[in-house]
Every structure is written in C-alpha cells, then in structure tokens.
Specification:
Chain lengths: 225, 225, 225, 225
Amino acid sequence: MEVATQHSGNLRPGTYARGTETVDAILNAAHTVLIEEGASAFTLRRIAAASGMKVGNVSYHFPRKEMLVQILLDEMLDNYDKILETRVRQPDLSDEERLRLIIVICLEDISGKRTTRLFTELWALANHNGFIAGRVHAFYQRIHDFIGEIVAALNPALSPDDVHTVALYISASMEGATPFLGFEKPWEAKMPAIIRLASHALIGLAKTITPAEIAGLRAHVAASS
Amino acid sequence: MEVATQHSGNLRPGTYARGTETVDAILNAAHTVLIEEGASAFTLRRIAAASGMKVGNVSYHFPRKEMLVQILLDEMLDNYDKILETRVRQPDLSDEERLRLIIVICLEDISGKRTTRLFTELWALANHNGFIAGRVHAFYQRIHDFIGEIVAALNPALSPDDVHTVALYISASMEGATPFLGFEKPWEAKMPAIIRLASHALIGLAKTITPAEIAGLRAHVAASS
Amino acid sequence: MEVATQHSGNLRPGTYARGTETVDAILNAAHTVLIEEGASAFTLRRIAAASGMKVGNVSYHFPRKEMLVQILLDEMLDNYDKILETRVRQPDLSDEERLRLIIVICLEDISGKRTTRLFTELWALANHNGFIAGRVHAFYQRIHDFIGEIVAALNPALSPDDVHTVALYISASMEGATPFLGFEKPWEAKMPAIIRLASHALIGLAKTITPAEIAGLRAHVAASS
Amino acid sequence: MEVATQHSGNLRPGTYARGTETVDAILNAAHTVLIEEGASAFTLRRIAAASGMKVGNVSYHFPRKEMLVQILLDEMLDNYDKILETRVRQPDLSDEERLRLIIVICLEDISGKRTTRLFTELWALANHNGFIAGRVHAFYQRIHDFIGEIVAALNPALSPDDVHTVALYISASMEGATPFLGFEKPWEAKMPAIIRLASHALIGLAKTITPAEIAGLRAHVAASS
DNA sequence: AATGAATGAGCGTTCATTCAT
DNA sequence: TATGAATGAACGCTCATTCAT
C-alpha cells in the first residue's frame, strides 16, 4: 500500500497509449544500458540510441535525467517485489521450507546478469544519491519484513527487534554473494555449493539463535561456565 | 621494497622528493574524491582541484588516467592487506579467537566511511572494467586464503575445496553488510548486534559444518537419522 | 544530383533549411580558416569562431572532425572540376586553342589566393593523411584525363601511355608554379610572362614530342646523327 | 657569401663540444620527425623522444620553438646548396650537359623521401610563416641563379630578365613534379619518363626560346609570316 | 647541461538541457 | 509527439614554455 502511494507520486509522463509505448521503450532501453554498460555509460544518448529514437525525445518525455532514474528505479524494484511475492507465496509450505525457498530464490536471482549488475551499481549510486539510497532502503526493508515473518514463526522466542536483526543478517549474508558469486563473477561456479551452505547455515541460525546470543551475553555465559 | 614488487610493474611516478610529494597529494586527493564524491565525480579536474594543482600537472604525473586508477587501486588494496596482517597476526590466539578477530575487524572496517564507500564503488566498477575486476578478485582471493587457513585448523575434516567454500561464504556474508550496515547506511546502528550474530554464526559454522552438508547430502542424512 | 553521387557516400549533414545553412556556414568558415590561417590553425574552435557559433554545434553537425575534412575536401575539389568544365567546354575551339585555354585557366587560377594556399596545404597534408592523398590523387587524375584528351588529338602518334605521360608533365609543370608564382609568392609578378612561356612551351611540346623521345632514345639518335 | 652572412646571424646555441653534439642530435631528430610524421607532429615532445632526451632539454637549447625551426631550415637548405654545388660543378661539361645534369639531379632528388616530404611541407608552412617564406625564397633564388647562368650561356640572345624568367620556368616545372611523382606519390613510377621528357623539353626551350616569345609577341610574329 | 615539475592554453569530443519546428 | 539545432560546461589529453634543481 505504501509502495503504491509512493509510486503514485511519480506518475509517468504521457497519458495516452502512444506516449506510454515510448516511455516504456525508453525505460527498457535505460534498463538495458545500465545493466549492459554500467552507470558511466548511462547517458541519454545511449539510451536514445538503444531505444531507436533521438536524444531530444528522451528529454521530452523525461525533462530531467533524474526523473528517468527515479521512475526506472521504482519500476525495477517493484518488479523484484512482484517476482518474490509470486514465487514465495505458495500456500502449502512449512515455514522452514518457505525460508529455504527464499534463500534459494534470492541466491539464484543474484546469479543472473540483471541482478548481479543492477544491485552492485545501485549500492554504489546510493552512496551519493539520496533518492536512490531511499528507494534501495525501502526495498530491503520489505525484504527484511518478508524474511522476518518467517523467522518469527520459526523462532517465537525472538523479540520483534531480534527478528529484524536476524532477518537483516540473513539478507545481508545473501546479498554479499553478489560481487563474488554473481554473473561472471570470480567464484560464480561455486554458487550451488554456497546455496547449500547458506540454506543449511541460515535456516539453522533462524531456528536456534537465542535472544541472549544476539544480545552479546556470550562472554558472560562463558565466564559463568 | 616488497611493496614495489607487489605493484606488479606499476611503478609509481615521481623521482624527486617534490615529485613524490605531488604524486602522494594526487593519490590522496583521488582517494578522497572517490570516497567523498563517487565514481562519477572521479575526474582529473576534481582530483586536481582537491590536490591544489592544475589538471596539466596531474596529467604530467599520470599521463593516462588509467595509470592513476591502477596505482591508486593497488595502493589501496595493499594497504588493506597490511592492516589485516598486522592486526590479526598476533601469536597467542587460538584459532577460534583468531577467526572471531577477523570477523570483528572486517565488520568494523566495513563500518568506516572509507571502506563502505570504496568497496561498493569497486564492485560496481568491476562490472565493466577488467583491470579493477582483476585486482578486486586477487584481493578477495587473499582474504579467502587467510580465512581458509583458520577454517582448516578449526575443522580438519574439510577438504581444501570445502575449506575454500566455507571461507568464501564467511567472507561474502561479511561483505554483504557493506551496503546495509556500513557508514551512513540504513541499518548502521545495528552493526554491533550483527557483529555478535555473525561471530556466533560463522564460528559455529566453521567448526561444525561437515563435508556432507556442503555436498548437499543433507536430505539423505536427515532421512537416515 | 550528380554531385551527391560524386560525394561517394559522404552525405552532407543538415536536414532542415536552418541546419543546411549552418552546415554551409561551417564549411565556408572551415574553408576560410584553412586558406587564411593554414592547416595548423584548422581547429574546431577557430572554425566555430569564424562561423559565429559554438564548438558544440560544429561537433553536432560534424561529429568527427574527419567528417568535416572529408566533406569540405570533396566539395572543394568538385568545385574545381565544375569550374574547369564550364570554362573549357566551349564548342568552337581548336584543340590547340583549347589546350592554351586550359593552361591559361590553370595558371590564372593558381594566381588566386584560394588555389595557391589550398593546394600547397593539400600537398603537405597528403603526405600523412591517406584520405586527402586519395582525393588529391583522384582530382589530378581527372585533370590528366582532361588534358590527355587534347594531347591525343594534337599528337595522334602518341600511345595512350605516352599521352598520359605528356599530360602528367604538362599538369605538373603548371602546378609547380603554385609555390613560386602564386598569390603573394615571391615571383607573383612574373606570372604573365610565365603564362606566355608555358603556353608556348607546352603546346609546342604536345604537338611535336615523339614516342621515341619519351622512350629515351635520345642517345641513339644523337649517336646516329 | 651572402648565404654565410645570413647564416652567421643564426649562431647555434651552445659553444663547446658536448652542447654541439646535443644540438646536432636535436636537429637531426627534428629533421626526421618533420619528414616522417609531418608538420602536425612536429612537436618538441616528439623531437625530444626521437633524440633520446627530455622536452626540457630541447627547450633549454632552443628557448623558442621558432629558433629550432629557423636553424633547422637554414641547415637543411644549406645542405641542398652544397649537394647541388658539388654534383654540378664538374669542369669538363658543356653547358647543355650541365643543364641536363641539373635537371636529372633535381628530379632524382625530388624522388627521394626527404625532398618530397620536406618541400611540400615547406611550401605549406611558407603560406603563413614569414621566416620560412623568406628562406625558401632565398633558396630558390640561388637555384634560379644557378640555372640562369647556364641558360644565359646557351641562349645569349636573352636579356638578364628573360634569362631569369626561363630559369624560373625551368625550376618551377621541375618542382611541380614533387607532389605527383615524388616519393610514394601516385605517379612515382613515371618519374624516369618524366625525367626524359623534361630534359628534352627544357633543354630545347632554353636553347630556342626567343625574347619575342617571352614578351608575348607570338601572335604578331605569326600574323606577319 | 640536463631534467623533473608545473602551468595555462588549447585540442577534439561528449554531456544534459533548451528550444523552434 | 518527435526531432533537428544549439548551447555551455566538462571531459581526458597534449602543447610550448618556465623554473628549480
């Protein structure tokens, strides 16, 4: 809901059909250019060339390049949400199976060119672009909530904050695979083993971690033993 | 001396003291610009401005921008190697304590502005720049070997390949914290909890993981038990 | 139409009337700069200044400087062809009168600033620029054919190859006046006398030269006499 | 003598042996660069590189690039004078043989890379550089005098001015071969035939031309006959 | 004598943007 | 809606020259 509201604040320019087609073409081309050539090649000229039109027309539909970036980003992240939803929201799964599914889906997705490239670029762009930082933040927030739901179910002893911490850890652990095991990355071939290892480790963690361990009472426990 | 060797042929310019100082100033400025303003602002003009000199002089010392990038990257990554070595190479530590130390050092380092920003930029740049990709690859290879040594000691049942898989998983899990828990990142405040969680989880994993679990025989084992 | 064909694929930019005007202005300015300031001053900035516009706009119409050079050169040489054609293709001239006309036209043309400067620059540029060398070659080939036709008519004893040799000699003899008797050149004042001398000498040569003399049988003839 | 005086006005910098060696090296390198790469590549940097030293040192010996150009040009043209002198000043030649020798020497020289390239560059540079124009002027003046001496001997009926006109025509006719029959020029292969043709034509002209023909009284003479 | 260092100007080119058509 | 045209700023790089060493 909140997502929809945020999105409605960025209504695409162009109201009737033909305009929408053009805008779609621009956005698709922009997506392709970003993935295939990187942020440094993400220029109106290349986007125009990739969408078979002239620079002026791209500027006409997106008077500021910033607008294009923002709408593109929203579309891309919405798309990820949808994919995750439709693939994980299967009714007859146990919580553990559902968590395993999320892990597998995420890591397999990271293996794809699109995701490998896109998110490494976004993490960098987020360093100096507040809008991108905000959208990426919101995106992962939803991921954490998603994972958190299952963690809470698997491990009822955890407080909501502990749940979030565990979900954040699980998510970050997986995302960390991107620059190393993603598409054409050095250890791409090890992704299957890493998927098995991550599933084992993260499901085990979600099920067995205690609030005390998160709170850092380990030293105390060790001392008392 | 050894540093020069590690530079693998990328001789640093500057023969006179004054020239060396200037080269230092350029490299420092370049580093600062990259961290503070990002890759899109990493231009000779901004580097020159940041180092109080004229563009032509930067070009004099680094005739190709590529040379500056390469030397800067080599020095930055060498520096990380040295820091890690000096901080972890303490003699009177158990293997578990040493692994914990690495985890803490890495994650604390990730919390720093320099590391948070630098590595997110490098991961993005590596997408379309072979040289950067190669250097980043080599850097993490050393990290994996480093972690792998301890994993092997903690868990002698693992084959060398299993050891590498576990080290890769540990490293990637930690690196994944960068875009989320790093400097000025959304969940920066949760880094202490994540450090505890990661220490607990990753040390436990290193000590208890079995070759069969890495090989994906989990289902079978579970069924037979 | 035929002009466009001769352009051999070098389509002139500028679709709208305004653009065509601008392209004309750029080409005129480029021509002027080359003639008035020489090849070393033939820069986009000076061409832009001379045509009252900004560098970016010159680059917009001629994305590569090379394109500007090529189109400019083609137009200039085409123009020379046309002038020669229209001035010499008069029906009621004897072959000798036609040859004399060509000689006078060429040498008078050489006296002009435009031709004096342009061709000395082109000969130099052709030393290290294959495109220019090729176009200049083709241009003189047409001149040789042109002169050759008349030589063949004047001196039917000559083989086609001899005709070409004589035409080449006549053309080169005249072109040699450029650096010495051309516009503002040291012996500019002697051009009228040289025109008379050249007419006399070259027409006489065309009419009286024998294949044996071209073949170098002079020594034999001398010996037999 | 006058040449020597002019030259003495451009004393080379550097008085003792080592300096002279360096200056020679620079001048040789400059010569090579001009011939091999053309005027557009005639930069201090390339000259320094070609002479195995640093830019600063070239600038030290020739504080202005202009000085280098001037001294280089004087040396080059002096050298041509000397070559011509030593090759033509053979005592036991008839005037006709001496003229033929000059023609052959000039055209053969034009066939060489050095001369082909150098003089085409000089003619262009002379368009916008008064010093070069002056030196080239003086150089050809000597050539004309040289040829004029023989023309006067062959054809005593000619006035001094007529002699100069004929010498100028002969010289220009030969120089005109440079851009067409010189080194790597389109009709290079035809140079032998052109040498024969030029010898025949120019010697004939020198011997038979009359003052009236030079004065343009041809039509009148023809009418009266 | 020789060179490393530094400068200011200029090079061809690309960029996002504006505007008239 | 779409695009050709135009601009001003910036890009990496090369230039001749100056100066301290």
